[in-house]
Design brief:
The chain has two domains: 90 residues, SRP54, nucleotide-binding domain (Four Helix Bundle (Hemerythrin (Met), subunit A), Up-down Bundle); 190 residues, Rossmann fold. It is built from twelve helices and eight strands. Strand 6, helix 11 and strand 7 form a beta-alpha-beta unit. The protein starts with 8 loop residues before the first helix and ends with a helix.
Length: 317
């Protein structure tokens, strides 16, 4: 299976295309914010604040960016509006760096004792199961042995959907069907991986926020049983967020981070939306690195998030 990454020509073209609406919307608003102005003053900053908030960057992150630019203006005494795009780009890159969002160039699996175990969480409809299938395909392309666990056992068709993805990318799926114990499925998946010497186990978990207590109990039980085979597991808890929902993605991130320890984010459905700014705000507000972005339907459209390439593409005129 031939896949391309964010640094290939096709990978960059896909990213540029997917961010097209977000970029066009943002730059148009930015141009209106500075029209008739030669320098950055209070009025321009007020307009810029509105632009960032309307671009789904989020209020807290927006105020942080505005404060940085205000300090720059106070220090330099004069900042031309023609420099604003570059200054914004630099400040956002700095924010992403502060949030431990590293510049990865490819999919990779850390070397650990036993299989590398990933728990995947997220509400229904964000592309959770689809992301798992695409992630499995990317790891398999690296010649890694992958096993999937269908532990989202209460959602209609969730198990069937994961099984279909398993067949599509030729990866085994451990399943006990619907309305079964999610922890029992996770147990069997990790047990199978351990016995067969697999490299990666990806476990699809509850796709609902019924209550935080139930979710915490369910995930806690899953973590407890898989530790019987791999004491350090799970090595990663990956939260899937739908980038097209804008501010609703912030709410989901807030609820899940209260319910469990999330170590990485994947933001999906960035193609065809003008809400790409949500990647910046969520990374900053929750201090959790964005690891993957989904920019289309194809398997190759799940890409490793690279902040430098993302920011360059977003601000490139």
């Amino acid at each position: 299976m031939k896949l391309f990454n964010i640094f290939s020509k096709k990978g960059k073209e896909s990213l540029e295309k997917s961010l097209g609406k977000s970029k066009k919307s943002f730059l148009n608003k930015l141009n209106k914010a500075i029209i008739g102005k030669s320098s950055v003053d209070e009025a321009v900053l007020d307009n810029l604040e509105e632009v960032l908030i309307n671009s789904d960057v989020g209020v807290k992150t927006t105020l942080k960016i505005i404060n940085k630019i205000e300090a720059r203006v106070a220090k330099d005494k004069y900042v031309s509006t023609s420099e604003l795009n570059k200054i914004l780009k630099n400040e956002i890159s700095r924010l992403l760096t502060e949030n431990n969002t590293t510049d990865n160039s490819s999919f990779e699996v850390p070397i650990v004792e036993g299989p590398y175990v990933i728990l995947v969480v997220g509400v229904n409809g964000v592309g959770k199961t689809t992301t798992i299938g695409k992630l499995a395909a990317q790891f398999k392309a690296l010649n890694k042995q992958v096993i999937l666990g269908a532990s989202d056992t209460f959602r209609a068709a969730a198990v069937d959907q994961l099984i279909l993805w398993g067949k599509k990318v030729n990866v085994p799926v451990v399943s006990k069907g619907m309305n079964t114990d999610p922890a029992a499925v996770a147990y069997e998946a990790v047990k199978k991986a351990k016995e067969e010497g697999a490299d990666v186990v990806i476990i699809d978990t509850a796709g609902r926020l019924h209550t935080k207590i139930n979710l915490m109990n369910e995930l806690g039980k899953i973590k407890s049983v898989i530790k019987k085979f791999v004491p350090d597991a799970p090595h990663e808890v990956l939260l899937i967020l739908d980038g097209s929902t804008g501010q609703n993605a912030f709410i989901q991130a807030s609820e899940f981070t209260k319910a469990t320890e999330v170590s990485a984010l994947a933001v999906t459905k960035l193609d065809g939306t003008a809400k790409g700014g949500v990647v910046i705000g969520i990374s900053d507000q929750f201090k959790i690195p964005v690891k993957y972005i989904g920019i289309g339907e194809g398997i190759e459209h799940l890409q490793v998030f690279n902040k430098r390439t993302f920011v360059d593409t977003f601000f490139e005129k």
